[in-house]
Amino acid sequence: MSEAILLVGGQGTRLRPLTSHIPKPLLPVAGVPFLTHQLARAAAAGVTRVILATSYLAELFEAEYGNGARLGLELEYVTEESALGTGGAIRNAARRLRSAPSDPVLVLNGDILSGVDIAALRAHHRLTGADVTLQLKRVGDPRAFGLVPTDEGGRVTAFLEKPQTPEEIITDQINAGCYVFTRSVIDRIPPDRVVSVERETFPELLATDAQVRGVVDDTYWLDLGTPAAFVQGSADLVRGRVTSPALPGPPGDALVLPGARVHPAAVLSGGTVVSPGAVIEEGAVVEGSVVMTGAHIAPGATVHASAVGRHAQVGPGTSLEATVVGDGAHVEEGNELPPGVRIACGARMAPYSVRLSAAPTPCATEHTAVRPTSGARGTARPATTA
Ligand code: GDD
Ligand code: MG
Q1: What is the pTM of this model?
Q2: What is the dihedral of CA 238, 240, 243, 244, to 10 degrees?
Q3: For labelling, which of 217, 253, 329, 370 has a CA lying 20 to 30 Å from the CA of 364?
Q4: What is the structure's pLDDT at 358?
Q5: CATH topology of domain 3-222
């Protein structure tokens, strides 16, 4: 038996409003819930039993995967009444492990798309007799991650989560969110309280001279925690830039799922996904985007590097650039949104509300306004016609 714990309890705050009703690991990425890619990769590497450490919108995980048989896995669900943090969640989930104290247990953050060779990481862990082995990644800007310097022999010398000052940036190696723990090490994490594995467990292990090792991996790696990374990860899977045993079709320029309708004169490219029940009308151009279930892209709309939520509508001639459109929102005709806008679930953006170029008609006497239904950060605010 080979066991894994998957951390899937985070609130996915940076992905709001996409995560208002769907937890981050269940958002559709290249046609299936993101977690399916991770579970399939773990199964392909010989993992047989997975404990899902859930908290936020916990009930949706079991509804999606049941006992895991469909994926060839035995799945268990452990739900924290209130979130226990990454270390607390690992300790809490460990109550359901069957591994012996000396067995290796794989632990994965639930939002990482990567090409890591899990079996090789586990083999390395066994070979070195480490207490914990971390996958590491070299990145250009490590500020949003955990910094993990190592010595020449691969032993971790420090762990610094999310450095605050330039002086703290002492390495370009970051924690890639994929660990192998010797089971007995997990059992030493304090139970029943909030613990951060990054801020508490790893620094303490280093202080007690435990053998914590890092393996730098140079395969594809992306944390899907932001809108830009979410749409990029999906597009990269569709285009075959990273492989997944769960990809529902051969790699290509776009993935149109059964039950979607795309007009022959629409243009799809850049790894776009069109989900079941979604409609792309004549002359629409959709590039590198995720169009979710039941969404509607009207004639002549342009959608680039964006996520269009379930049953959302993008009106004729509207253009979106790196936009997040919440479930059920309507961005009506002739809007031109600058990059980075988030539209709240169910919001209605009146025709020609936001323009980058001059509106084709003079300003109407009647005031038109955007009326978001909730005030999520970054949501479009009331605006007069440009
Ligand atoms: N069950 C449970 N309970 N899961 C949690 C909790 C919790 O209280 N808090 C977070 N998680 C899960 C999230 O769902 C996610 O899968 C994972 O733990 C990591 O949380 P993120 O919120 O995505 O953290 P991050 O991306 O800011 O930082 C982490 O990942 C980086 C790599 O992407 C850290 O591990 C960094 O050190 C690391 O570099
Ligand atoms: Mg993350």
Answers
A1: 0.91
A2: 20
A3: 329
A4: 81
A5: Spore Coat Polysaccharide Biosynthesis Protein SpsA; Chain A (3.90.550)
